[in-house]
Amino acid sequence: MVELWFYSGRIGNCMFAYAFNRCLAYSLKTRCSLPKGTEIAAFPNIAKDAEKIGHHEHKHQIYLDYPENPRTVENENDNMSWHIEKQFQGGKIESFGDNLTIQKILSIPDIDKKWLVTLGNFETGNQYLPYRGQLKEWFRFPSIDYSKFEFFKLAPNREDYFISSERPEIDKDDLVISFRLEDYTTSNNKDRLLDFDYFRIILESKKFNKLVIITNPGCINHQEFYYKFFDEFREYDPIIVRCYEPVVSMAYGALFNNIAISQSTYSWWLAFLSEAENIYYPIPLEGPFSFNDERYFGTDLRVSSPDFKFVDYETRQVLPDDYYTKIDYDNRTWKD
Question: Where are the chain's structural domains?
Answer without folding.
Answer: 2-138, 146-334
